Amino acid sequence: MAWCAFFVFISGMAFQIARFFFHSRRRPRIRLTPPYGYAKRSDLRSARERWLARLAAWRVTLWGVNPLMAICTGLFHVCVFILPVFLLHHNSIMGQLWGLTLCPHVLSDRDTDLLCGVVFSCGVVFLMRRLFVRRVRAITTRYDYLIWGIALGPFVTGFLAVHAVFDYKTLVMCHILSAQVLLVVAPFTKFIHMVMFFINRILLAGELSFGPGRRTWT
User: Fold this and answer.
1) For residue 37, is it left (φ>0), alpha (ψ between -120 and 50) or beta?
2) Number of domains in the chain
3) pLDDT value at residue 101
4) Using CA atoms, how far apart are residues 195 and 130, in angstroms rounded to an integer?
5) Cα 39 from chain centroid?
6) 122 lies in which domain range?
């Protein structure tokens, strides 16, 4: 089941990336030559306008509108990436199966519990926001709560299993199954942003892109 989950995850992500290139096209580069004698002034003005445009775009992003949510979102995603990769138990299993491990550069039990606490706290903030913020609750459906549960499932079950809150074997099986469910649904749900966020910001032309962008939608 684990190999099937990895196969669905990798092939699904490859399919979504292929769809991106199929539905977008390479954007032609347009260069405007300023009139003679005004090149330096135009360059300074264009640079100033670019910085002002970036500042205006930043003000309407999550960082500019709601800094608390931006901090929670950033911490959540960092911890979600660090925990599975640098967890001692995961590295021990990978070392036994494939001979690949990050030891001794792994998280201690104390650091693991701390990062799990950050993940759980951010998850509660996300849930409270959907329950009590009117404009967010208005566009929230059962699908959003399901996604929330799938995202936190592997971390909750893993935390409970490590601390032996219930039967260890049962919790480990729930942890494995929840992780496999996350891998299987990731390419076909909102979790696709774990890959498409970087592709869109780097390749797609837009005001929130990291650069000028080389592609645009057809």
Assistant:
1) left
2) 1
3) 84
4) 24
5) 42
6) 61-140
Q: Which helix (H) or strand (E) element contains residue 217?
A: strand 215-217
Tell how strand 24-26 and strand 215-217 pair up.
Answer: antiparallel
In what helix (H) or strand (E) does residue 159 lie, and over which residues does it extend? Answer: helix 142-162
Across the chain, the runs of DSSP E, i.e. the strands, are: 24-26, 215-217
Residue 2, in any domain of the structure: no
Residue 27 lies in a domain: no
Give the 3-state secondary structure of residue 87: coil
Phi, psi at residue 28, to the nearest 5°? -65, 140
Q: How many residues does the chain have?
A: 218
DSSP element (H, E) containing 24: strand 24-26
In a domain, residue 80? The reply is: yes
Asked whether residue 132 is assigned to any structural domain, the reply reads yes
Contact between 112 and 83 (Cβ < 8 Å) = yes
Query: No. of H helices and E strands in the chain?
Result: 10, 2
How many other C-beta atoms are found inside a 10 Å radius of the C-beta of residue 187? Answer: 21
85-121 pLDDT, tens digit each = 999 888 888 888 888 888 888 998 899 999 999 999 9
